[in-house]
Design goal:
heterodimer, A: mainly alpha, Rna Polymerase Sigma Factor, Chain: A, 2 domains, 9 helices, 0% strand, globular, B: mainly beta, Immunoglobulin-like, five-stranded mixed sheet, five-stranded antiparallel sheet, 10 strands, 41% strand, elongated
């Protein structure tokens, strides 16, 4: 594990305060019954991850938006047929990867793969497929899970971790202390406690 | 080991450079569900019919020709809609200004099929696509449950 080289750009907006109260499987089942709010939740939950995949592959903003739309169109078409609703995340990542790869190929005027197997074979043969390599996607998924888990923390921990780790520029301990309403020397142990709570959520 | 895992989680958060998808894309995706509820998919695709094509004219005899050539104007009809296009620029690189007229389309996007040229429709159904390399394109307007397609768009 390499040490952090500094903060990376992240959104300035605070993490949504809504606690995640439905599992992926429950949301998918609700969508199948025609529940619009479940679909809204699904879009909200996965929009960042889906958008990150073509973006990581270096596609333009317009192409990323196209891939984004195509994934949701396909998800809506196939939602009744997905055999394991609890595995929807894997389905989404694979679909976004497939559509990103097709878009990359189309942009180069090359034949697009018809199946996942063909895609994997093409990607294995080319060095420039690195942005869509499994390890890259695993990282994107891990970050998605972390963000989802942060949303499940109680407000104080959510605020502490968001301010320290998920902002464009990390907040100082003084800033965090002022926001949370504790002494500055309390922030470091609080931060550790919150990270442990986050880890427990991720382990569940 | 526990400490290392916490450090790894912190590292992943610190190095997260992901961003939210564009707000209009998220809204579009949420609205997509309405095409499903209670009935089969209602996504309709209408290929528009070209009803007028005024290629950029040469100035009339006796007029000064210093000004830029008039834009090519193409008018299409697609069901209850009309698509008015003005194409300016050269064969090698051109712009398209357009307007979709007719019933309210809601949150709609317009793009050239198979390319990255894409925009949202403005309040009055207006849009602009700039810097398009020479060639023949299909313009696609996508709303929640409808697609309008104007084919064979190029600069003469």
């Amino acid at each position: 594990m390499t040490p952090s080289t500094g903060n990376i750009a992240a959104t300035e907006e605070p993490i949504a305060s809504r606690v995640v109260d439905r599992s992926d499987a429950e949301i998918v089942r609700a969508c199948r019954k025609g529940d619009q709010t479940a679909w809204d939740d699904l879009v909200g939950r996965y929009q960042r991850l889906i958008y990150a995949i073509p973006r990581r592959a270096g596609l333009s903003e317009e192409r990323c938006a196209d891939v984004f739309q195509e994934v949701f169109v396909t998800l809506l078409e196939k939602i009744d047929a997905i055999e394991k609703p609890e595995k929807i995340r894997s389905w989404i990542v694979t679909t976004a990867k497939f559509k990103t790869w097709s878009s990359v190929r189309a942009e180069k005027g090359l034949y697009s793969p018809e199946t996942e197997e063909e895609m994997e074979a093409q990607m294995a043969a080319l060095p420039d497929a690195a942005p869509l390599a499994d390890e890259q996607l695993v990282r994107l998924e891990q970050r998605h899970l972390i963000r989802t888990a942060v949303n499940m923390l109680e407000e104080r921990c959510r605020m502490i971790l968001s301010m320290i780790y998920l902002r464009e520029s990390a907040a100082s301990y003084a800033e965090v202390a002022a926001k949370v309403g504790v002494g500055e020397t309390s922030i470091s142990p609080l931060r550790t406690r919150c990270l442990k709570k986050l880890e427990r959520i991720l382990a569940d | 080991m526990g400490e290392r895992k916490l450090q790894y989680i912190a590292h992943l958060m610190e190095t997260d450079d992901s961003v939210d998808a564009p707000a209009d894309s998220i809204k579009w995706a949420k609205n997509l569900f309405r095409t499903r509820v209670g009935q089969p998919s209602l996504l309709k695709r209408i290929v528009a019919v070209l009803t007028a094509d005024l290629a950029g004219g040469r100035p009339a005899f006796g007029e000064r020709s210093a000004s830029a050539a008039a834009p090519r104007q193409m008018l299409f009809t697609a069901g209850e809609y009309a698509i008015d296009l003005r194409i300016t620029g050269s064969k090698k690189k051109f712009d398209i200004r357009g307007q979709v007229l007719g019933k309210e389309l809601g949150d709609a996007t317009v793009g050239l099929e198979g390319t990255g040229f894409r925009s949202s429709l403005g309040e009055n159904g207006e849009f602009k696509l700039s810097g398009i390399p020479g060639g023949k394109y299909s313009l696609v307007i996508k709303a929640v449950d409808l697609e309008l397609v104007a084919e064979h768009i190029e600069q003469m």
